[in-house]
Amino acid sequence: xxxxxxxxxxxxxxxxxxxxxxxxxxxxxxxxxxxxxxxxxxxxxxxxxxxxxxxxxxxxxxxxxxxxxxxxxxxxxxxxxxxxxxxxxxxxxxxxxxxxxxxxxxxxxxxxxxxxxxxxxxxxxxxxxxxxxxxxxxxxxxxxxxxxxxxxxxxxxxxxxxxxxxxxxxxxxxxxxxxxxxxxxxxxxxxxxxxxxxxxxxxxxxxxxxxxxxxxxxxxxxxxxxxxxxxxxxxxxxxxxxxxxxxxxxxxxxxxxxxxxxxxxxxxxxxxxxxxxxxxxxxxxxxxxxxxxxxxxxxxxxxxxxxxxxxxxxxxxxxxxxxxxxxxxxxxxxxxxxxxxxxxxxxxxxxxxxxxxxxxxxxxxxxxxxxxxxxxxxxxxxxxxxxxxxxxxxxxxxxxxxxxxxxxxxxxxxxxxxxxxxxxxxxxxxxxxxxxxxxxxxxxxxxxxxxxxxxxxxxxxxxxxxxxxxx
Length: 471
Hints:
It is built from 18 helices and 12 strands. The chain has helices at 16-24, 50-53, 63-69, 80-94, 116-119, 125-139, 152-162, 175-179, 192-199, 206-210, 214-221, 223-232, 263-284, 316-331, 362-380, 388-396, 412-420, 466-470, and strands at residues 8-13, 33-36, 45-48, 74-76, 101-105, 108-112, 144-149, 167-169, 249-260, 286-297, 302-313, 338-350. The chain has a 5-stranded mixed β-sheet. It starts with 7 loop residues before the first strand and ends with a helix.
């Protein structure tokens, strides 16, 4: 009897940010839409729908160039909080159809689809995939594409092949034929340096990889070479698992609303950003051994500096003076207004939360105090308690401050945490599972929580007005 391998479904939102804007404002449908603009329309394009892409608009293009290529295009300012909300709506529905969901970004993830079609009474995987896609576009308003294969690489390539708004299943006996003409540069994890090394071996497509000796690839690329060879021959089979890797870096890079000639005002803004980043330390029980500061000026030139602490730190009273000293050294002798500031931390250690003979550890007390402050803000509103730095910034540099939503390019580990916190209950309009007598329900080992559908900040479909939806 042939071994039974896991089937993996890859789902990806089509031009997700632009699709979200169209879902929020149906008047934009059937028009070329691109999202971006920066501070005053002088920024770059961060997303474009497929109608706009026909005019040559791509991510990273300057907005003035996009206007030249597509004069009838609609430039929309991003609404990041809405993108996060729609992302959670999408994943809450996907979670109903699989025992294992691995999100990799705000609009992309992998599902264990091995048994899902049979459990939900579908004759084929394509039938269930089409129903899922139809449900998401109907209830969330965002079209998605999906690909099905025996590995994550293969499923992702299948999705790319059927975009936009399509589905493609690569059968087990057709994997090698499907992969043969695919360029190796289409694979995630192959950048220019690795592609150049493969070209030196005469490899441009996966079909070329399949014809090479395995030992040659293994000696040159190690485990990656083995996986690449198995993929090219249609013999790579994976099992999905949640990685939830530890943090390696926490940073905040923010462009100031206006180019700021006053270095002292920009410093207050940087200290405020540092305070927001340190909040994450307490939330995730971390302290950092290394820190860096970067400053970009209005001529787009930048300078940076990093420091390594003698011991891992997490308290603003220790970190802020170092940030201030590094900032002053970076801007000394500079005459250009400041456009952007960045603070980043790395080399983390866990907080010491174990009590000793004399009571609770100071790090534990500091964390508990921070949690108490968060509860007060939850009850009385954001910024109901302010630090001295925040008060000084509001009085001297209020034009630079604000709680604008950050662009949600979040790492995989954060998406796994967010999706893991979603209720396990089926949504109201989800398919009813059909179990046979000898069939076990697809349930996770964790106990189910909640008794209703995912609570959302706004009820979808109540209004199609942008003003109403965005408050």
